[in-house]
Amino acid sequence: MTDYELFNLNELNGWIIGSEFEKNTPFYSSLFQLGRTNYLYPWKDPKFHYHTESIEIYLVLQGELWVIVDEIAVILKEKSILLVQPGIFHSVIGGKGLIQHFGMKIPSMEDKKIIKEEKDDYENKIEKITKSGFNQSPYKQLDRNHGFIADLKEESNINCWLIGLWEVKYKTEKFCFAYINFDTLEEKNAHIHQDHFHYHSESTEWYFTFKNSQELLVNDTIVKVPEGYLLKIPKGIPHKQISMSFPFEGATIRTPIQDDKIILS
Ligand SMILES: [Fe+2]
Ligand SMILES: [Fe+2]
């Protein structure tokens, strides 16, 4: 088993990490599917769809995404995250500005159900839902059976496990998610106690760097994760975050988390 994989996401658009069913993606994972728009103009999905098994997350870093979740139209502003539960219809219907966002499906599998409807029916449905207005206060939480929206500019949503198990705002047994944003070293030191060298019995951990860079010790190698890169650390591989350059922005995802044990080494 390799110790780690480092992906350069810069310049890539579309589905980057796909399931075994999506042959066109350059990388494969059974755990995690990753796509992105890298400063693209707003678009409109051709149909509503839902996922039978996967949770989908939209992480908007720049621009604005307009999304319909079941019967609710929401505006996803810059630095916000939307989680859509399996079985819930959703569709991107537009946006504003140049959009930089990440789309993730966890777990990664061939479970997308496109709902066959005539173009007119789709347009009528969108009109009906948006007639009552976009939810201008999208951070008002969605019904938990449908999903979850969080404003990542809000202090309490950053630099912590926002989604996952234990003391989090949104509980799921499928994955953990943290959005990291530290302007200075002092800010980081005030938030995080010393990270221990550890490994996971079940989880693969993914470290994103959106701005500047971070370094991790993986086994006995120092791995630098520059801006726009993604580091994958498989289960059983000891690791520890050792430094970052500021202002830093990134995210960490761990999956699957059920039965995972964190073992200090
Ligand atoms: Fe989807
Ligand atoms: Fe870890």
Automatic annotation (TrEMBL):
Highest taxon of source: Archaea
Gene3D superfamilies: Jelly Rolls (2.60.120.10)
Protein name: Cupin domain-containing protein
Source taxonomy: Archaea, Promethearchaeati, Promethearchaeota, Promethearchaeia, Promethearchaeales
Entry-linked InterPro entries: RmlC-like_jellyroll (IPR014710), RmlC_Cupin_sf (IPR011051)
